[in-house]
Amino acid sequence: MQTIVDALASIVGTAHVLTGADAAPYAVDWEERPQGEPIAVARPGTTAEVAAIMRLANETRTPVVPISGNTSLAGGTAAKGAILLSMARMNAIRDIHPSARTAVVEAGAILSSIHDAVAEHGLIFPLFFGARGSAMIGGALSTNAGGSNVVRYGNTRDLCLGIEAVLPTGEVVDLMRKLHKDNSGYDLRHLLIGAEGTLGVITAAVLKLHPAPLAHATAMLAVENVNDALGLLNQLQRRTGGAVQAFEYMPRAYIDAHLERFPDAREPFSESHAINILLEIATTRPDEAQPGNDGQTPIAAHLEAALGALFEDGKLIDAVVAQNETQRAEMWARREAAAEVCRLHDPIIVNDIAVPLDQMQTLLDQIAAIIAAHDPDALDITVGHLGDGNLHFSCWPSTEDTAVHDVIHSEVEQATIDLGGSFSAEHGIGTHKRDSMTKHKNPGALAAMRAIKTALDPNGILNPGKVLPDA
Amino acid sequence: MQTIVDALASIVGTAHVLTGADAAPYAVDWEERPQGEPIAVARPGTTAEVAAIMRLANETRTPVVPISGNTSLAGGTAAKGAILLSMARMNAIRDIHPSARTAVVEAGAILSSIHDAVAEHGLIFPLFFGARGSAMIGGALSTNAGGSNVVRYGNTRDLCLGIEAVLPTGEVVDLMRKLHKDNSGYDLRHLLIGAEGTLGVITAAVLKLHPAPLAHATAMLAVENVNDALGLLNQLQRRTGGAVQAFEYMPRAYIDAHLERFPDAREPFSESHAINILLEIATTRPDEAQPGNDGQTPIAAHLEAALGALFEDGKLIDAVVAQNETQRAEMWARREAAAEVCRLHDPIIVNDIAVPLDQMQTLLDQIAAIIAAHDPDALDITVGHLGDGNLHFSCWPSTEDTAVHDVIHSEVEQATIDLGGSFSAEHGIGTHKRDSMTKHKNPGALAAMRAIKTALDPNGILNPGKVLPDA
Questions:
Q1: Which residues form the FAD-binding PCMH-type domain (chains A, B) (predicted)?
Q2: Contact B425 A143 (CB under 8 A)
């Protein structure tokens, strides 16, 4: 009898089926946690090959786990005993249409490659996060990745016009349309985006591009509390015509931890503040981007004027505007070091949570109370995308007692839910948050998700054990 | 045995079940086409009542057709022999959260009521189309309605953060979250939006609001061809920082027809042009909205400067900027009269189509060739949302021969598909376009839609005969 490995080789070629030591690197995730060993790693080169693999898997009831950049933070690609379907070879950037502002890409295209390719046309694909040098668009779509510019451009799903995917049965869904309006039946695109590869394998997409900003104005802001910050954000949005690209939260404890990790870094302000915000606005307007005689761009002058007015209102307690690209880079380096700063301490308690914008201060207050109640010496170094209501709760406990870690984690999650929030803002469910799905997801929604999963994947072979908890 | 009508009365109260003459007005659509008579019209007042009706219908295998403002253009609410579920009583605007820029509304809330309610807070819900005085948000969500501001704010689905719906089994899906990031399982919100009430009855939603513009600048533009228009649009987007709110297409034949219907109206330009575009930009920036000594706002001056530069490039052949609110209203009245102008002539051939932005000129050329081939004396008065690649093809044939009408309709549709377009841009499928689904929708996508429909509505009772063609 032909083995699965032989059958895979007959589809993609022997060179593109990895087993044993060759497959071993795929058995750990990005954070080097063991994920279990796959049967084999298959590296298809075409959508037809993906479809053939899915038909094989469906007929033989063999689990398939799609993987692109392997930068999941939620165990979304654990593949013990499964065919690991690597999209890495399908990495073409097929077409860029500058006047229509679209790009046609394959699932294995790396984000930074897409960024580079569209930059040549004065355009951006505005999906930016730390792992952009290895994350692939297929994974970003499958997890509906967020990042630092969601406040301006939306999540990954908002940047995708068309999609192609292979269903668990091997059927190809071709919705590769470059359209801004297409009301022709159920929106399968949005169903497949964010499904974490459990409903279909995304093989290609049409991306929506935006004009590249000609100039940025970047600042560090300090406020008394997050309600003031929301007021500031709304004022800045009005005063800049919606030009805010990033509005990122860093508490004092994070600034301290950053300085510990990077001793050559500088304090953001001459004084120390409890709440530090990285603000960036950007413009595509030539008249706002051309530096004046003083070397300052009109957009930077406009930002300084807006901040001056807000300062007089008393809501803003300190502000520093980057005077050049070096200072801008310094501000971003501080924020983007978060993953590295977090690794300074083990254990760490983390939650990727979101609440309505007007509930952020209440959530922060409740988090402080939870920590005070269970581990008052713990250090809360939570950073977040304040403009999206999204916190990456990160807490260094003072104790090794995992019962304490668990209670903090679960009370922070419950506080989030009680404020109308989500226990999974942008990292997805994977294997890590299935219990939270059981506890917190609306039962009617869970039942509908299960019905859809069964309808599209009757044999349960595609990325089993992810997203949906056992019934 | 209790009849369906009695059972409905026991759920919603006798006063809220209409039959016979009381139900008759519901048996015609907005364009006064007969839709078939329902068994009864039920007017629930709560989500629990909707759920009880769905359970009754599911147990008794009685079709249910949800209806809100009855402004469908696609026969989406034809209800012969069905319970017609009117959402009109569930019209509360429950909450507005100005700082978080969200509104919580029930499905029966009329669009213009939502507009008025949020205006008090300096905010807009930017979904604008002709029927806004009677269309309800439940229907707008169910059809993912478009309109005139999609180029800036997106379609209805882009303006919805959370949703509540009752599934065909009576189960309630509660996803009423006011979140900008929520990756917790499959995106049922986007699946229910645009499903035209065939997968669930939308009962409430969380809407995303935007700051109200403080000033508009509106102009009529004339160009040689639509490729030039696309270049203009891209230039204007860059030069205004993405402030374009509307970019609407009107050909010469439409201008003539408009003048025929409204003899007191004026020509848009002193000279006659083949391609006329209504452009509007808007600003929330106080510094751009304050009129100067000459009475002109900076945004209007900025637009005039931008148009001046484009004129010198030779892509723009004429332009008139509205000098006051009256002139702005006149420009909009010309465009918004389209539905009324179309009624001047019967028969009319219509297609609601979209193509990629860079294929618009080719599509217009092909449409001209199709008309020339089959009915050279026909008058093409197509208007459209050029910024979205969306044309409302409208043609007055010179012949009564329906075979000619059909061939023009079907060749325009085929040309659209061949250019990578959609046969249904923003009006939906309803009953009218099911044949086009069969002809043009990707078979893999159709199969997946059918599987999802069966999974969520195993007895096929919710809005049967809509969207999906018979297998």
A1: 34-212
A2: no
In a domain, A199, yes or no: yes
Position A28 scores a pLDDT of: 82
Contact status of B150 with chain A (Cβ, < 8 Å): yes
Instruction: Residue A100: list chain B partners with CB under 8 A.
Output: 230, 356-359
Residues 186-225 of B with CB under 8 A from A: 186-188, 190-191, 193-195, 199, 210-211
B230 found inside a domain: yes
Nearest CB to B285 within list A158, A238, A445: A238
- Taking the CA of residue A264 and the nearest CA in chain B, the distance in Å comes to 35
Judge: A171–B446 Cβ closer than 8 Å, yes or no.
Answer: no
Q: What is the ipTM of this complex?
A: 0.96
Do A307 and A232 lie in one domain? The reply is yes
Per-residue model confidence (pLDDT) at position A130: 87
Q: How many domains does chain A have?
A: 4
What pLDDT shows up at residue B72?
82
For residue A340, give the H/E element and its range: helix A338-342
A454 CB neighbours in chain B (<8 A) are: 455
Distance in Å, alpha carbon of A179 to nearest chain B alpha carbon: 5
B242 reaches A (C-beta below 8 A): yes
CATH of residue B301: 3.30.70.2190
Q: Do the domain assignments include residue A53?
A: yes
Range of the domain at A396: 345-418
Q: Which CATH number belongs to the domain containing residue B132 in this structure? A: 3.30.465.10
Chunked mean pLDDT (size 10), chain B, 471 residues: 90 96 83 84 98 98 94 86 96 98 98 98 95 95 96 98 98 98 98 98 98 98 96 96 97 97 96 98 96 93 94 93 96 95 93 98 98 98 97 97 98 98 96 96 98 98 96 81
